[in-house]
Write a structure and sequence with these properties.
Five copies of one chain form a homopentamer. By secondary structure, chain A is of the alpha+beta class. The first copy, chain A, has nine helices and nine strands. Chain A has helices spanning about 1-20, 30-35, 55-70, 100-115, 140-145, 170-175, 175-190, 220-230, 255-264; strands at about 40-45, 80-85, 95-100, 120-130, 160-165, 195-205, 210-220, 240-245, 250. In chain A, strands 1, 2, 3, 4, 5, 6, 7, 8 and 9 form a nine-stranded antiparallel sheet that branches. In chain A, helix 3 (about 55-70) packs antiparallel against helix 9. The two termini of chain A are about 30 Å apart. The interface of A and B includes residues 163 and 227 of A.
Chain lengths: ~260, ~260, ~260, ~260, ~260
């Protein structure tokens, strides 16, 4: 009961931020989130110790500056914000940025880092990737293809998890049939969680020291824990040279709420 | 003799904190510590060098602020506090937080980190996990099942040790029979220490860069050292990709005592 | 459409800096970029937090100081500048320095680090290398040799990526025939991207903790991502002990623009 | 000749500190150094950069405070002090603490870190261990057992070296006969150095991210270098997952001398 | 032409410092550089950011203090100084210290770190080693022995490179014949570079987390790069667990010049 109430509050915050109203003439975020060829940058920040020495008024005006930067770039980038503070050491929050050119992501982040708050942010991690069409789905059997169409449960999914992945050389050198077989097993392991865990994949080879950025949203962290265990049990797991390190576990929060937490 | 006296003092402090009295209408801590599906967060902190530049009065008022945060969240989270200072580099203390939603753990820690003391805390490590029912006990022979019911020796157990664990891919890919056989050997190695070493297990896959968080309490560190050696000698040890790093060795201390040490 | 406009602006900036006019009697940069036996140093910097506390006038005068150092050394070194801020954690920009003696690179960088801005720069990474003639091209079949002569598409290539590489002992101990065969496969994987991705190679063994510094320029990061995936799929990839770590993804920007960003 | 004079000076300092006179009613240090079941903590410190900004008088009074802490805990812990400055990066000195309860070690170190100097100490490394009886000696042939009774050469041994060790899973899983055979070879390699290199062993499994802490004293670092090479040549070396990292090479110095160096 | 002029200037500086004149009654440096049983310490430093906030006069007087420390210890240690700034991240310069007792090296470095400049130095790396007679030369064929007597080309060698090395357990456990064969191949690979690259070897097992410190001087970094590639191609390279990390590439510079650079 209590849990649901908590989710509802988070969800309202989320809605407020994600759909800022029909009057906003910004990028088509929903399209960016679905399209291939979209560049995603995950920029993770930790507030430095000097930030806390600013007085309340300075922090409030700094928050306004940040909001203006988000608005200014609303025509080129779509953004989501997440609170990591408390759950991940060395990180307070991260911004997920989507656009059709990596340069837009950079320009937005350069402006964000140039604000008063930005000058107090330590950029702990940054992951860059690009979205693509599914690699292995065409090779899957029909029943598995059908299962993949299961719609996620409605309702808010307040938790987000980002897991960067790097495969070993053997994975890449394995032929397409071998990879298809391993990915079939991998996909089967995920079907039990399609309703409660949403997933998005970014390809990162050459854009970062990663091959993939995997992004998840869920309301049920116990299901997510079981999903990852299921994925650890398939043979493809032998080829994960890096899986996490860092794992970013956070909650989806509107920018306003994150700024409010940093301004207290 | 002296040793016992020391333990007694620590134990009294422990009791004072853990059972704050029947009038407190907070979470049912005992239930949280036994239930499955409970989220545990281990948040490890080091006080920064500027903290020590505050004067005594500022530090005393900062301590009061911290206590208020613990009380405010007493309805949603159960907490335990541990002193690492002196025994673990880069860490002064940690808080173990339990609740039925990871969001509660985060909200408590965000508030704690937002206090005057909190703004001087470096969050060295954080581990997140979830409790579950036993995986392997059902497959154990009856005599071993019976042995596992040995109650721990009464009396205080002032030392706590946290060892994060990550298994290799081969462990996860091994079939259930193979894992059962290895866990039987593992369990046999622990029976000699059931009386003097208490243990609690958290599952962490996907919630952190770990598979398990193992937590121990003991009054006899020599027994604990022997227990770990016994566990190093079983074949399951081949599958520990990470065991410790960090190992957190500390003493259970009430919040008041930790705050007093940091306020001297 | 918009993307092209963005590129055009970047390109104009780039031209302004790279070809500072016929009246400049500096090193022959074009020759340095083509010759073998040229020493290249990649010096990566992060501005420290105190920099931002300087007032505008101080920062403007610091920028002028930096420009004077670039000019002073224009007779011995050729330089290019790149913005990493926003896309790479722990780095704001890097300078690529070319000259006929490593000592010139050092003297230039010592002067740069001795400016007011320089004293606020943290030198995050430095890579040193030397250019050489192609090792494997002579052994390639004629059609592949011909393909390698494909000129890159005209037009600006605003993105630059630097990937440091270290091979394993087995790579070096493999005989020339074995290496030729692997490099033939490697080269074949790159032909599809010769038009959209420019590449330059530096040899680093003994000059740094690397064997190679690979440098790329492109306007199409999706092609670059595919190129790296193609290279991950060839057997030579088994011998990459280090590939990236760090991968530097940035945009080519004239010094003036970088200084302007740091002076805001 | 000069070398001997230097050693004599160090030795006098050492004697002054280690045997503070018959009137001191502290722990029986000699017994602690011989007994099994004794807890040893090696706490390594680096002075921070702000320490040096204190004026001379402040530093002198800080030194007196430190001495008082050593005296206060003289009833529960035995201590030795070592200078690392100059020979080990990131460390200025370390204290070796022995007592019958790890809690005593912690309480002493908490008090030490709570002094004015302590608040300027960065705790670079801490190793915790316990002493035990010899594991392998009973299985050695009689002549080797006899050799092990060789008394060390008299005279001061001004150098101390600490090498933390972690074995691999195969070591622990190897049966007792296999370990006996490897330890016989190991022990034979050390006999040539029994006169010039003293050794003490601590068991650390579960108390730290180590299995052993090996501690050495010598006047002849060339012999010590040869001893370690001899140990690298035996098959047991295959099972050292960690050997050093860090290796602490320092000189035994009385507390007064270390405080004097830090107060200049 | 220009390159030669540069070298000449560096060389004159070098001469000034290394041979301070016949009137100096210090250690016999030439003997220390040739003898076995000599202890070498490589102490690498980075100036901290506060150093640059001192005014010119303070820095000049700090430089004089440093020179006095070098002179004071001239009876016990021989020193060389090297500029890394610009070519190695996290390091500005290093001092190579030789003496007959490690204690002398420590006492010199403690005094150096106790100066006003020293208190602003971060000790990034320290390597300790000892010189010994050649291990493998006696087993080499006569023509290779003769080749090793090739004198280096005359003229200044302004570049110095330090490469720390750690071998794997298999290297150490390999019998003398096997090592002789590998070192024969290793030595053959070096003969082409005997004229242009000078080399000195230190043994470090137990004195540091290394087995060897290899030190090189050259005027031709292209030759040095080729030498290291040649060494990567021999089978002994399979046994290098660590080779570099860090590689220190710098220029030999007299103390005065380094102090001048740091005082600008």
């Amino acid at each position: 009961m209590r849990g649901k109430a908590v989710f509802a509050i988070v969800a309202i915050g989320l809605l407020t931020w994600c759909w800022p109203g029909a009057t906003h003439a910004g990028v088509d975020k929903e399209k960016l989130l679905k399209d291939t060829g979209v560049y995603g940058t995950f920029a993770v920040f930790k507030v430095d110790e000097d930030w806390w020495k600013l007085d309340k008024a300075a922090r409030a005006s700094a928050a306004a500056e940040v909001k203006a930067v988000f608005q200014k770039h609303g025509d080129t980038v779509a953004t989501d914000t997440y609170l990591l503070r408390g759950l991940v050491e060395k990180a307070d929050f991260f911004v997920r940025v989507h656009s059709t050119e990596m340069l837009h992501n950079q320009n937005f982040l350069v402006d964000l880092m140039g604000t008063t708050l930005g000058k107090h942010l330590v950029n702990t991690y940054t992951f860059n990737g690009i979205t693509k069409g599914p690699n292995y789905v065409p090779s899957l059997p029909d029943d598995l293809k059908a299962a993949l169409k299961t719609p996620p449960d409605p309702g808010p999914k307040p938790y987000a998890i980002v897991v960067p992945v790097r495969k070993d050389a053997e994975w890449w050198i394995t032929g397409q049939d071998g990879k298809n077989a391993m990915m079939k097993e991998h996909t089967e392991a995920t079907t039990a969680y399609l309703k409660t865990v949403k997933r998005k994949l970014y390809h990162a080879s050459g854009l970062d020291d990663l091959d993939f950025i995997t992004y998840f949203e869920t309301a049920k962290l116990d299901d997510f824990n079981n999903l990852i265990i299921a994925l650890e049990r398939v043979k493809e797991n032998r080829h994960n040279r890096q899986f996490g390190n860092p794992t970013l576990l956070g909650t989806i929060r509107p920018l306003d709420e994150i700024l409010e937490i940093l301004s207290r």
